[in-house]
Amino acid sequence: xxxxxxxxxxxxxxxxxxxxxxxxxxxxxxxxxxxxxxxxxxxxxxxxxxxxxxxxxxxxxxxxxxxxxxxxxxxxxxxxxxxxxxxxxxxxxxxxxxxxxxxxxxxxxxxxxxxxxxxxxxxxxxxxxxxxxxxxxxxxxxxxxxxxxxxxxxxxxxxxxxxxxxxxxxxxxxxxxxxxxxxxxxxxxxxxxxxxxxxxxxxxxxxxxxxxxxxxxxxxxxxxxxxxxxxxxxxxxxxxxxxxxxxxxxxxxxxxxxxxxxxxxxxxxxxxxxxxxxxxxxxxxxxxxxxxxxxxxxxxxxxxxxxxxxxxxxxxxxxxxxxxxxxxxxxxxxxxxxxxxxxxxxxxxxxxxxxxxxxxxxxxxxxxxxxxx
Length: 373
Known about the structure:
78% of the residues lie in helices and 0% in strands. With 373 residues, the chain is an all-alpha fold. It starts with a helix and ends with a helix.
């Protein structure tokens, strides 16, 4: 035998001579490691459900109430130099700025921790609301209610969205459903509350009161939320372009892009549409709140498509795909509006309806291929 062959033979013998008890201990340790990575389906996870519900309520729920502000901006001459397109862009920035910072927030949360990123978001949101309460020019509203608030929502919400999938497996749908309900309930409550504050106090104080309430709630949620990154060790990449080569991922991104065209149009235009057909401001706010009650999020769908390890990457891609529709949907809707006509929002209604038809086609195709798998 050659020297290399003898060395290989000795190594094989050393492996075969390992006592069975040692081999069993190794298998037990491997099984324990795997069990520790499995979601516990309860325990502290329910606290995280409550925190994620609160975060959805006091981020997207508040953003969803922008339609109430928009109705007042359009019906009152608060910013004389502004036109309807300016107010449409301000509302769009609430969403698009949150989407834009998603990859950065994902990387920051990986390096500095979930709480650190969320704390930045809490501060940015509060500052945005406070600055908006002192705005006298439209450019100030762009910076405060548009950009700063959008960044604040992104930094607060993005780190939390993958948390529940780390804590739940069999009860994941229930946990995500409870969490997602926060945005709907928050939109319902804040639509009604914002309308009441504007009518009984002022727009400025509605901003300030919202800032105080949201800041306190999001601070509590930030302190209580916990991830399981040390156990699961997900890659948490800002982008994983390999996902873009998958047909199911492209269908999901197409669905989110097109459906958002219709959703933003409804969310922001509905209060003013209600006003044009003769309803009062209070009734318009009530209609907007009912729409918000049915709000859902993309997170529960994404984890079923990409799996737990690749969830942050897919979510980052999803947020980037939403920048354009969230920024320009309401701009398009107001361009399609025909002021002074019997049905001002007819073309905007057709636009929103077609968007949902196309989005439904993408979702049906996604469902078809997932059933085949």
